[in-house]
Amino acid sequence: MATTTRRAWLRPPQLRTLDDQGERHATWLELFFDLVFVISIAEVVHTLEDYRSLGDFLGTAGLFVAVWWAWVGYTVYADRFDTDDLLHRVLVLAGMLAVIAMALSVHDALHGGAAQFALTFVAVRGIVLLLNARARRHAAAARPLLNLYLTAFSIGASLWLVSVFVPEPARYVLWGVALVIELSAPWVGRHQIAKAPIHASHLVERFGLFTLIVLGESVISVAQGAADVDWTAATVAAAIGGFVAVACLWWLYFDRIDDGAIRSVLQGLTWNYAHLPLLAGLVSVAVGTEYAVIEAADGELQRSTALALGAGTALYLLATVVTGLAVRRTTDRVRWPALAAAALALAIGLAWPLELPLGLLLVLDLMLVVLVIVESAGRLRAAPAPGTEPL
Q: Which of 51, 144, 199, 380 has the least C-beta neighbours within 10 A?
């Protein structure tokens, strides 16, 4: 009886992606886990709202990389090994607490709170190390890959820990080196990934859900901007314009998320990593939409607001092109309209007259709506006629 109870509560993690590549959806624990990253993304956006210099923007972009990478670490582990036993749940819940602490450390990480952020990131990474060490013990086929990951993540965590005792700006250099080491590990171990593959359809869904979280922050930013000003014709028009832009960005991503398939390790890595600039662009748009609504009340934008909207949209569109190329069929065409729209969005951010805030949003919306129409029409033309689909 004791042995049976133990097996029911403690089931060693097994590499299940070798034999199970059928349809799989996010578990309730995975969805619960994502909630703490709602806080993390909100804190990144709020940091950019309060610190708007170029240095702060670049530094916060680095913090966003760390936040995104923390999510990837848990997500990819669960994709391969999630057994949902007692120990797994306890470790994931502990990881959620660590992520909350990390999220609350983001705002001041570049302004006196760097040590706190570093320590919380080490805690987040430490739990991922425990999960992977447990999997290494029980999943022999994944050991070569996990040996690499455990080494890279341990070196990275050590550098984060050492940085607590190092003065700025050298502390931030250590953070950058640690992230480079960890981010490069999957590329170095790409040949081992074939022996411990990802569950492609499940991971596509997980990345889509995280993208929704960031899109949700963009919608909140529109509402927040409208809440901070008097409702005039200009501010209402700006809020509507900001929402239309975010809605178009949602459309352009999720209308194509099921196109093609990840057929190789290289495609999977390209698709996964292209989401980093894609999500960073969305964060930039979130900040830009809020301030565009606020500044519309004064009748003049700041250049940083125009750049956040224009450059953020351009970065997002370029990343969607890369994700599409990663999974496209050889007969598919390059998305030239999206590339042209990205170039136009960047030009708008760089050169738009700041005394015309509503004009910027109108032009940006018009460009995105046209792009949605062009891409939707292209998809309809490329779709097989009814009755001609392959059996």
A: 380
